[in-house]
Amino acid sequence: MKRRSKLFLIVAGIIFAIGVTVCLVAAGVSTSTGEQLFAAKIGEDKVYTYKIGNGETDKIKVSVTDADVNIYGGSDRSYIEVVNFNENLCSYSANSAVVTFKEASEVKDITGFWESGLSFKGLRYLLLPTSGGGKKTVNIYIDSIEYVKIFDIAIGKGNVTVSGIDSETDINVSLKNGKVTLSDIVTESCVNIKASGDLATDVNFKNVSANTVSVTAKRAKFVGEGFKSAECDMNITVGSVTTDFTPLLESYEIAVKAKGKLVVDEVPYIDSYNDKYPSDNAATPPSADNGEEEEVRAYLNILGDDLSVSLDTPVVYDAGEETTANQ
Questions:
Q1: What's the whole-number mean pLDDT along residues 116-129?
Q2: Is 57 exposed, middle or buried (0-12, 13-18, 19+ CB in 10 A)?
Q3: How far apart are CA 268 and CA 239, in angstroms?
């Protein structure tokens, strides 16, 4: 080996040693000041924690591949936990309006690395293993004063849980397949669930009240308990729907079209069911200008090909009303 090459190797080794020393010193300083330079070790998991929110966060956007995402309302403070992710395949950004966490798929070569929009994040990430041993998870905790206008969650495969949200918030969840659980949700805005994968996705609603609900899936099992909405569209190609439904308006319309077992209020029907309250035969009170009032109805539309439906509707005791159900 030439003398010059040896000299370059020695200089490179010195620079590397200095870099390691600086990283270790920075780790100590960050600990003393409360800054998280490295992931915290909790059991077998690696956890980064980010404080979020100023009371007016417009959007929290999470895009991950194979991971779970949990959103918990009613926390004592607002923050995000990022668990067991490869730091060099992730990016996190936040300002007063938008919080974004994004994960890229595995980068096979240097070309793909740069094209992914990610970049090398520093020597400190090479000093520790790139991921923990457990499940990749994003936990989002929202306190009672934080008002998030939009949750936008996109995952490949995994579970999404949202609970304890009581605000005018859009909840958008898209995934290939996995499980979506919403509980104790009250919003005058929208809930949108889209499952695009060929495997079955479980969608569970418990005590969910939303102005507009959309559930779209190739294959899914939907279960609802204490479900309220003004406008609800379910389009599930294959699977089942077992739910109750309480409209958020006094007048409502229900339409079910599914080529599977269909039971409404414990009564079986063939292929379709339609109902209106009040019915078209009921008298409509005139408006102040002696014209007819424009009727505004809540509605539930369920559509599927090979879909089994078991539905409980509001029980209305009115001798003048008739059901237009097809039996």
A1: 45
A2: buried
A3: 18
